[in-house]
Amino acid sequence: MARVKRSRFAFLSGYRRTARLYLKSKIGMIGLVIILFFVILAIFSPELTSNNPVFDVGVGAPYSVPAWATIFPQYSGYAVTGYVIRPVLFASTSDLDVWTLSGVTNGTVTRGISTAAPHFKSGPVYPGSMQVNASIIPVNQSVRSPSLPYGQAFFSLSQSFQWTTKAPNEFLIAALIKPLKVENVSAIYLNFIVSTPTSNLSLSSNQTFILGQEIRILPNQFGQWKWSNISDALLPLSGLPAFVKGSPSSIVFNQVGKYTLTLQVMGIPNGDNPSISMNIASLSFHEQGNAYGLLGTDNEGRDVWSQLVWGSQISLMIGILSGVGAVAMGALAGLAAGYLGGLSDEIISRVTDFFLVLPFLPLLIILVLIISQNDALYANLYWWIIAVFVILSWPSIAKIIRSQVLSVKERQYVEASRALGGGTPHIIRKHILPNVMGLVYSQVALNVSGFILLEAALDYLAVSLHPIDVITWGAMLTNALPDATANSSAGYVWWWFLPPGIAIAALSLAFVLVGFALDSIFNPRLRAR
Amino acid sequence: MGLGRYIARRTVYTIVLLVVIVIFNFFLFQIMPFLFACPGMTYNRCVQLLYVPQQAPKGATDPILALHHEQEIIMTAYGFNRSIPERFVLYFKDMFTFQFGFNIHGVLGGSVLDSINKRLPFTVLLLGASTVASFIIGIGLGVVAAAKRGKIFDVSSLATLLFVNALPVFFLAGMLELSQLALTGTFYQPVGAALLSKIGWAYDAAILKELFLPFVTLTLAGIGGVFLTQRAVMIDTMAEDYILMARAKGVPERTVLYTHALRNAVLPIATAFALSIGFILSGAIITETVFGWPGLGQAIYLGVEGIDFPLEQAMFFIISIMVLIAIFVADIMYGFLDPRVSTG
Hints:
heterodimer; A: alpha+beta; six-stranded antiparallel beta sheet; five-stranded antiparallel beta sheet; 15 helices; B: 344 residues; mainly alpha; MetI-like fold; 77% helix; 0% strand
């Protein structure tokens, strides 16, 4: 019984030996680590990226440099696209302290966490909201502040932030609010006030012009969740004198220092004891500058990091599947040709010659072009590309395997085994395969590397056939190439052009290294003496 | 088997392979596109849909008559009105008499043969120069690396060339364009634009100037493969018994290396070189496209873009002939150089 057990797992000791040798191979380990890195990118693509690599156009300004590149002098001071003030999800009382609440003289104001929260089909889930109850004593018309003609302030929420960069291209201040209970107040106004280090700028008009309609909340809207936005695109329309001269962001953010954003809630009292209860689910300040994320953006403002991460899937899938497929086919054919000889050898050698004569890359593009003419086939384009890779590549692999089989077949121990009565299955299993498998493994690795490069070349040459919803490294390079070689104002888009090129090079080099390592393990002649 | 019989056998075999390739090309260019583009449709209907104009030429006095006339011309010119066996016979005849017909799309000019002739010198110049250069450099580096196996020179040249080999060619081309910009402050000008106004020596000088970057790109891209093959063959050869023998009897290491080993190790490279020469006419599609070099590779690319099958099938045929000749020559050469092959 014990004997049977041992022999059943005997093959494991061979693998263990190979693994031990492999772990000692420095280049093999480097290759493996690089491959693992990209495999992790491919598997965790959804978790690693927050933007759709193809369809999320304009997540940042076009040609944004990476956020970390602002440490370089030529990009220093670029505003980084992102939240200046993040939206806080109000889940517990500690979340309330993010915003400073201040009431007005002669008024009362309290706040707490409310479970009332907006529900949207997509986007963040709001666990709750901040509820503010404020009441004031109405004052005489004549005493009212001259700058706020349409009502009285009830309360305000403010938060300070440090501004360290140049002015952003655009900004957006957004509040998600719901007036709950409003007594003796005829309308509510929201004022967004940005205090610069030197002056106060009221970003909303109290005149009910176009901007006012965005901000004003009339009684029939009470009790509903409502987004209130201020963006620099809207501000010039407001007709405020300060913003007629230039873009609001360049006027407001023209200096560095401590800024404060204040949301001031005002109402028009029309009776005694006016009070406002209001829920606030989100209040945020987003800016769009010339720097974005890990790797910046492309010419359409799409996230390059997302493209790089999602592109790894196609490269790995095509490389590995066609590498394994081509080598499996080539190995079977090579074994048959080498061991059986005769007619099968003749056929396989002739087919190999035939494929050798055809110009590989032109044939590849033409086949892909023909395939993409058919809508049904085009839907699975990448599977067909893999099929074409396999069909065009297996003969040369068969040729390599065949010559190895031929040389093993002639070795003396095989002859001895045959003389002792070993049958064909026995000889193939015990003598031929163990001596050929090393070559097969290294061929897989080397071919995967070749196919990764080939897929990139195909992306370049057949760019018009590229499926619109898929991003690949080759397509990234192709898209970036015109800008990379001509667009000096965008720094030759190095953050967009280099990553896919380096990724392709690293991944295909990694497979070559693994192939070399396997080769030297299975082929002792190659080991340094 | 004597050398004469060996050559005769190879000749017959080469001709058979050429015929097979012509048949394959017919299937690839004349049958397959229509099978895939319009499934379930008759051949002629599909042809009409794809290639025959559906709109009258602009400015025609009688549009319907003009349209019919145009359609008639196309159908006859490309043989679309014949049956498939008829077309095949015609195709066979056309190919072997170099009647390649006319480009379907205007980008490349009228006659296929003309456009090939016009582009041929550019491709031969670029590919010829870079193939020779990459083989010379690759063989040189490979031999030295094999001789200094495991030393710094070997490891560093291996690492560098493996890395260059792993770069996509158009990425490499873009990087080289950028380095030219950084070094000289000028952009690479596609050759077509730079040549228009020049004649005589100025024309040649301009071509050579614009040749530089595509040449460097292709040479860099080609060195790796040659280097790796040469190094591997050389290392294998150095392990042979006769090298041990030569060393044992006190032959100087240089002589062992360059006389005993190299002469045997250069054989596989010679085959690879012959094959590369055969493939010269297929041009360097990617490099020529990136740099706008007006060679045959660019023509293949433009032809694919415009679904220009007369050009593509002519190119495939010519490339196949060249490669077959190259293989044939390599085989014969092998027969002369290595007596073991022909005497079996």
